[in-house]
Write a structure and sequence with these properties.
two-stranded antiparallel sheet
Length: 308
C-alpha cells in the first residue's frame, strides 16, 4: 500500500513541478532580498569575481573579497564601495592552501561575521595536453578548482547550517559537464566541483536545512582572459560569453535560488544529448561543434592562467 501511495505522490508532485516550471518560464520568479548579507567571493581581484562583487554591491551587501592579487582586490573594493556596498573587506588568501583558507576564514569571522553567501570563483587553467602538463600544475589545478571548495565549505557552512540560512555558489564550467580535448586536468577539477556542490546540496536537504541554497554555474568559455585565444566554431550556438552578461545571470540565479545555471542556454540541450546519444554519435556531435579543436589557438603559459 505504501508503494502505491508513494508512487502516486511522486507522479502528482512531478506533474505539479513541471507545471510550475512551465509557469515560471513566462512569469518572472520573485527575487529575494540580500541587503546586509555577508558575501564572500574568492578570486575577486579581476574578471567575473570583480563583476560579481560590483553586482552584489548594488544590492547593499557586505562584501568580503579574497584573492592572491592585492592590487586587484583594492581596485575591486574601490569599485564596490562606489557601487553601493554597505561595507567592503578584502584579504590576501591563496585558496590552494588549506591552512591559509582556515586562517583567513577565522579572521573573517572575527572581523566581519558569519558569511551567508559563499561564492567559490577562484580558478586556474593550464591549457596543456595531459601528457605535457607538469605534475605541479596538475596538482595546483585540483587544489584551486576543487579542494579549495572543500576548505571554504568546512569553514563557513557550519554557521549556515546552524541558522538554516545561506547560499553556496560554485562557479564551475561547461567543462565540468562535458569533457574537452586538451583540458583533462581542468575538466577533472570542474567535474569534481560540480559533483561536490550537488552532493552537499543534497546533504542539506536530507538534514532538513532547506534554507541553505545551492547554485552551480556552468558557463561556456568567458572572455575574461583566462582562455585567451580560444575560438568557437559556431558562435551563434556556443558564443564566447561576455563577462558582464555572465555576472548578471549569476546574480539573478542566486536571487531566485536557481540550482543550475548553464550558459548559453544551448548547453542544456547539449548536456542532455551527451547522456542519451550513442557514444559514436556523441563524438560525431562533439567534432561538429568543434570540441576537438577548441584549445588549438589557446595562448597559455607555463604558470597557468588564473581567474583571480
Amino acid at each position: 500500500m505504501n508503494f502505491i501511495l508513494e508512487t502516486l505522490q511522486v507522479l502528482l508532485l512531478s506533474l505539479w513541478y513541471n507545471i510550475e516550471s512551465f509557469i515560471f518560464f513566462f512569469v518572472p520568479m520573485k527575487k529575494k532580498n540580500v541587503a546586509g548579507e555577508v558575501v564572500l567571493i574568492s578570486g575577486a581581484g579581476s574578471g567575473i569575481g570583480r563583476l560579481m562583487a560590483q553586482e552584489f554591491a548594488a544590492l547593499g551587501t557586505v562584501l568580503v573579497l579574497w584573492d592572491i592579487n592585492q592590487d586587484g582586490m583594492k581596485e575591486t573594493a574601490r569599485l564596490a564601495k562606489e557601487g553601493g556596498a554597505s561595507r567592503v573587506h578584502y584579504y590576501l588568501c591563496d585558496c590552494s592552501d588549506k591552512n591559509e583558507v582556515y586562517r583567513v576564514a577565522d579572521q573573517v569571522k572575527r572581523e566581519v561575521g558569519d558569511v551567508t553567501i559563499l561564492v567559490n570563483n577562484a580558478g586556474i587553467v593550464t591549457g596543456k595536453k595531459f601528457m605535457e602538463a607538469p605534475d605541479s600544475l596538475i596538482e595546483k589545478t585540483m587544489e584551486v578548482n576543487t579542494m579549495a571548495h572543500f576548505w571554504t565549505y568546512k569553514a563557513f557552512l557550519p554557521a549556515m547550517v546552524a541558522n538554516n540560512h545561506g547560499h553556496l555558489v560554485s562557479i564551475a564550467s561547461s567543462a565540468g559537464l562535458i569533457g574537452v580535448n586538451g583540458l583533462a586536468d581542468y575538466c577533472a577539477s570542474k567535474f569534481a566541483a560540480v559533483g561536490f556542490a550537488e552532493s552537499v546540496g543534497l546533504e542539506m536537504l536530507a538534514l532538513g536545512k532547506d534554507g541553505v541554497k545551492t547554485t552551480i554555474v556552468c558557463p561556456y568559455f568567458i572572455n575574461t582572459g583566462m582562455f585567451d585565444g580560444c575560438q568557437t566554431k559556431w558562435p551563434s550556438l556556443l558564443p564566447i560569453l561576455d563577462p558582464k552578461y555572465v555576472a548578471k545571470k549569476i546574480i539573478h540565479a542566486v536571487l531566485t535560488d536557481q540550482v543550475y545555471l548553464l550558459l548559453p542556454r544551448s548547453l542544456y540541450l547539449i548536456a542532455a544529448l551527451k547522456n542519451i546519444l550513442p557514444m559514436k554519435q556523441g563524438i560525431l556531435l562533439g567534432q561538429y561543434l568543434g570540441a576537438f579543436s577548441l584549445m588549438d589557438t589557446f595562448r597559455g603559459h607555463s604558470q597557468g592562467k588564473k581567474q583571480e
